[in-house]
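[job 4417] fold queue: 2 targets
>>> target A
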Amino acid sequence: MPIPIASLPVLVGRDGIALSAENEGLVLDLPTEQIVFTADGLARLRAEGGTVLIELRAKAGATPRVHRIDGVDPDGAVLFADTINDLLANRTDRDDVDGARFAAIRSLAPRWRHRFARRVLRGSLGYLLALIVLAVVAGSLGHWDVVIVEIPVGGISWLALGFGAYGVGHGRRERWLQRHGVAVTATRATSPGAYVYPDGTGDYRIFVHGMAGAAITVFHPPEDPADVLVPSPPFTRLVNTVGGGFLLACGAAGTVALALLTVTSFGTPGGL
């Protein structure tokens, strides 16, 4: 009697790499990536002691791609491989298939946009902390003029610098990728909002984006095909860049004005 996929054990190997069977196919969890293999792309699984080899289908004359997980339980590996191979044996479609198209890689590492947003957030929190310290020191020394001006000017400058830096940084990143990055066509996957694109190495990567359409053009750095970016419409990018620059200028002007007021007030006994 066939063993249900849901009852198959999760194979946990070296470095925390795990292989599991789910309704959509096999899922291989790596430290920085997750690969989902659908049945259409699988050729067979091989259990060799504590190693499981996931062999993908390949077109005639091509070398099949193989994914490897080491350090798993040997008995569990045999059960897992035999069960999956029994299911694959019932397949009736043609053999000339590129299995890499059915092995979607999802990056778990934060993309540039998320890393940059964290840097902006840390800078904003540091600026806010400096404003709080300034208010406490000025109030304790009786310079209430600084405190009264700092609340509106410092608060608006804080917001302007944060949003401005993000807008300008994101716009510059888009322009750089469009000039120096790699442009690829991503096609809509079966999952809602998901798109798949080739990464130039023979693998296919998946990401989620809310844009509608059967295909969209995306960009990624030559050295990191996982860090994909969907460009904004030209008008939106222009507004973000110009608006971000304006906010940066306003935030910088407010910061300079607040610094001059602080220096002048602290240099005058009793404040201004």
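>>> target B
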Amino acid sequence: MERRSFLSAGGATVLALAAGRFSTAGDAGSPATAVEAYYRRASASEDAEAFAADVTALAHPFSPLSRIAEDVPMAFDAVIRQELSDAAVVGEDVSPDEIRSISGFLAASLTDEEIESIAAENAVVSATVVDGEGEEAEFRWLVATDDDEWRLVWPGEPEGPVTVVREYYRRAGTAENATAFAADVEALAHPASPLGEVAADVPGLFDGARRQEVVAAEVVARDVDAERVRAVSDFFGGAADDETVEAVAAENAIVSVTVAADDGDEFELEWLVATDDGEWRLVWL
């Protein structure tokens, strides 16, 4: 999934270039201009292979982007066919844990020392890209300084339904035991969800997640109605009153997630997630 996110992170901004917002080719004086330079160079490149050399020049020394550019330059093919319509800093100096949560691929590519180095000075840049059919998508680039110059680390996805589900399994994998993970479950749960209460009372029920790894995750439905919310499980449907169900039905999504157990077996689950104060939270599995 992380690789697919990377493949779809998109192109250069002709609109912004015309407005004079871009810096010169060597300018990496701010987090936003580092991202803008990436898209501008993509627009000027003849093909993905030519652009791959620019990716290496713009990437942070610890970023896996350079390795991908060298080994699989065609991974950047979609970039040169998209345009950037806006770029803005939306976060600064995110923590090592937040860096790891951006992407499982990124976390696996970095050592603890490299993550700590990136955490010393970084920023998150929201980049809105437009494809050839006019469809918009947002990516949140992690950028960090190297020798006082801003460099690209990785293009993550914005917070969304899939993100909170991935975070659940990430925290499960790093928790020392089921009791410790129970606190994470409570923190990720929607106020209308009984997950937090169940985790506090019977933490052992969540122990299995600590031995599972996400293979793939995607949204398969959005804003399902109250009847579908109640039908997510007999336990949830029986425990939730009408007010709870309506709160969840206001804005929600069904996330299909494929997980692999420690014995290699894979299976698919569906999570119901919903927003609370604009943030996606887990409702029920």
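[job 4417] complete. Note on B: The chain has two domains: 31-158, 161-284.
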